[in-house]
Amino acid sequence: MILSQLIKNNGGAVAEKPAVSEATTGKISIRDVGIIYDPEGVHVVAVQNCSLEIPAGEFCVIVGPSGCGKTTLLNAIAGFHGVTSGEIYLDDELLCSSEVTTDPGADRIVVFQNGALFPWNTVLENVIYGPVVQGKMTRPEAREAGHEMLLQMGLSGISHSYPSEISSGMRRRVEIARAMMNDPKVLLLDEPFRAMDALTKTVVQKYLLDVYDASNKTVFFITHDLEEAIFLGTRVYVMTTRPGQIKKVINVDIPRPRDFRVLSSEIYRDLKEEVIEAVHEEAKKAFEAGERERA
Ligand code: ADP
Ligand code: MG
Hints:
binds magnesium ion; binds adenosine-5'-diphosphate; 10 strands; 8 helices; six-stranded mixed β-sheet
């Protein structure tokens, strides 16, 4: 469903969108997953006994020390590699187990840290590429939906620019727009705003929140930025040091739509403290383990 249809179905106004819990697709179940790289050789146990249930339409944020297995888990959901044990389900359909690996598909779109726009195409051409090549929309339909999506992301003025002509913050917004145009069940983002300065980051975060609020997609978002985690997430899942599993789940009880004012609220500060404490405990363990390995 394209954005215009989503908005129409919701009574004609983004502000009147249904609550996130009303999403019906995009439930992810990760059940006792283990992922070992190179079992016969170096044998790196990246993820072990990892379980989480992400309801349809949730903005799920994963945090944890560097090297704890966050990207590994995202790659398994995306279909870039399999799992060694356990299962991952999307809407009760098996995505992967030790025997099954479902290839990447338009139902699970990844926005990469370093970006992947076609440099030879304009912003609009990049955004409409997916639905056109998949035959989901005609070119005129895709152009209309693309313009609307660019409007939603505050990018109308640059639809005919090339990726090299726009700022990195705008490029990241174009990538999110392109991902959403594929109408995925799940949007997977691996530290997408990592290299951005603080000001650009807050702008892009707000656009992502607006698109999320208007669409009800499930979002699986990895970050090392704990403030970002709370600002964006419905739940923040803290992973342990490697082998990664879920150490703590923090419910972010801050109503949507959210804006920068959230950042100065008491509940935000309390939640931040809780997340920082949980992550630092793990980061310290990871650091000490690293020290032991080197000793
Ligand atoms: P994170 O994203 O949390 O920083 P990753 O999922 O990238 O962590 O990596 C988890 C662990 O698996 C790390 O120790 C990393 O070095 C290791 N790892 C990642 N990819 C491979 C690979 N292809 N082969 C062997 N080890 C890997
Ligand atoms: Mg990573």
